[in-house]
């Protein structure tokens, strides 16, 4: 793994190929290592007011936080961490509904597998910054809750919860998002990872409520590339694995308008999120994890 | 008003149902595809269902239209083109079938009268600018004016001839082809017997065919012949009846005002009427059938010749086969012993049938004796081989010859072997080139040998009796012995090639020889195909005359007559419409796919 990390930037590789290298933990580590190696400073860092502790330098940390005294005395790289940073609390809300357990190509990860790896990488990045990070997994109910902690070993708890989280049934996001308000009493960061095949108005209401509570909210809209277009036999019965709803259609006839509908839906999500001060990222499951992390980091810094 | 030249092609209209059927069949059990984003799909369908349904309906209609247009085009539609009053100047050939069958009576009227009525209707619509041709039962086109045509129709009677109506139409079409007028039509008025159609080239002009609504059942005499040719004084007449009316009817053989024999028979029967005639010489006899709706085929004319049996003797070595055959003929009353006809191996006084001598060294003496009697023929050297006999003496035909003398000279040749004379006649002398032995020919061991000898003695040597049969108006080929034919109008000399048109009236016409004696008869009787009144179908009319021939009803004839130039073929228009519809379908079908990239 070390050699892979050193020779190839896993964060920039095809997610499916990266997933073939090992489990979630290895992938997340590799991705994060590669991701941080390409950053000039820590991605989710705010400004500090009170020193808290030292930690070893990680590629991507800003040089201004290097403790030059230790460097000069012991010839070792340490950076200073500040209280404000450690107090950032983030909660990742992951959609584990049946619709997430789908891929349009065997050589692509399902939306859920992709999302798990993305969440693992995100949480690792956050924890390395001493940000307390928690996880809520849901389908039509809240299925997994891992409270936010800043300890480095906490990542293993998150990983265990992620691995144990398999695809459930329907999708109802509001209970999970309401649960966030219980778990994040102070202002924090909420990462909502879902294919957004849910009741948009209710979900938006819940997200905007979080935003009103002072949380920063980032939405990762996970889509399989095959969902962007309509392919298949000349005539087929398309069935929703989550709801069982189905309709017979001829892809050739509906393809153009379907694509327009998808584009419009994405646009509506983006506009609605932007209007509510929510950061929105449309993520296809063939997008390298590093790109997603980079975009998330950029928006995080933009949001402050 | 649209009509179709190939209406059967309209059966293809059922193919119009193929697109909807495919649509319905295609809807059955489509494969299931798991697809989480069905909500986008349902939203799409909800928003665009009207447009999609309209598009699909339009596609379905366009596909059905393509098939519809192609099928209609295949049916060769013609549409009436509006024009002013009257009709364009037209060259029209009116074929009126007044052949023998037109004499049939239906509901008290002759078929010909019905045909003439319809012909008058056609004439009524002929205008001054039209050019009119009239074709009758003889099949010859006549350029006529309207008045002349009407006069001809008024006096028209059934002729006892056979008319090949398809050939008559072809002749009429050829005549019209040379006409400069823009429109050409052949109008065929006929009882349209199936037997009157014959295969041949399609006709290139419009042919309007009309037939009377009914034809009767009929029975008639198909053929009759005497057996044997010479009665002494008894003989038989073999009669074959034909037609569709199988109910038995009375049949009589009569001559000189008296009935000789009678029988009862139906269509398809072959009847032998045996009779004895107490008279001598040539007689005209007639076989008569009880009358039915068509009278002209109920009688058959025959020539009878009643003679005493020939008195024969043998001179020299003519062979045992000849001796035995004469005994048989004598027992049968066909010959008697005497010196009227000599069967000899050397020329003798009187009528002689000369066979080659058994000793070849005697051939020279034979030739000298022939020369003394003024005979132009000589007996030449012997040649060997294998040949088949052909000629006028029917029983000899087909027999093989292995050895024969060459017959050298000039005169009437009755039978030939390999094209060379084998049986010749010169005055009283009849010369045979082979001896009647197995080594020379198969003739003496064939069943035909006794009839051959009978004909040789009674017909060829002693009494020439040639019977020629012909249909009315047909060309008869008369024997070389005939110099003239006795017709009611007088004696007609036979042309040098022997070909003479038979009189149109059925009957027996005797043939005169060079010495003024009667040497045979020409029997003129109806063509049995005229007895077959079964009618042709519209399909067979088109098959024989081509696609431009149409069998029409009364109304159809009224509508179509002189409409040739007023009707436009819209096949091309429909094909163009089919192409436009196909292109529209292609464009509409591909438009949905093309939008994908937009």
Question: Describe it for me?
Answer:
The complex is a heterodimer of chains A (304) and B (598). Chain A has 304 residues and is α/β, with parallel strands linked by helices. Chain A is built from eleven helices and ten strands. In chain A, helix 3 crosses helix 11 and helix 8 packs parallel to helix 9. The longest helix of chain A is centred in the C-terminal third of the chain and has 25 residues. The N terminus of chain A is likely disordered. Chain B is an alpha/beta fold. Helices cover 26% and strands 33% of the residues of chain B. The longest helix of chain B has 37 residues. The C terminus of chain B is likely disordered. Chains A and B meet through strand 8, strand 9 and helix 10 of A and strand 2 and helix 2 of B.
- Alpha-carbon distance between the termini of chain B? 49 Å
Structural Rg of chain A: 20 Å
In order across it, which strands form the biggest sheet of chain B?
20-19-21-22-27-26-25-23-24
Number of helices of chain B: 11
Biggest sheet of chain B: strands, sense, closure? 9 strands, mixed
Principal-axis shape of chain A = globular
Number of strands of chain A: 10
Biggest interface, chains and residue tallies: A-B, 38 and 28 residues
Main beta sheet of chain A, described?
Answer: 6 strands, mixed
Strand order in space, largest sheet of chain A: 5-4-3-6-7-10
SSE pattern of chain A: HHHEHEHEHEEHHEHEEEHEH
Helix content of chain B: 25-40%
- What structural class results from the helix and strand content of chain B? alpha/beta
Cα-atom Rg of chain B, whole angstroms?
37 Å
Name the structural class of chain A: alpha/beta
What does the overall shape of chain B look like? elongated
Uncertain ranges of chain A? 1-7, 40-49
Mean pLDDT of chain A comes to 81
Instruction: Assess the beta-strand content of chain B as a share of residues.
Output: 25-35%
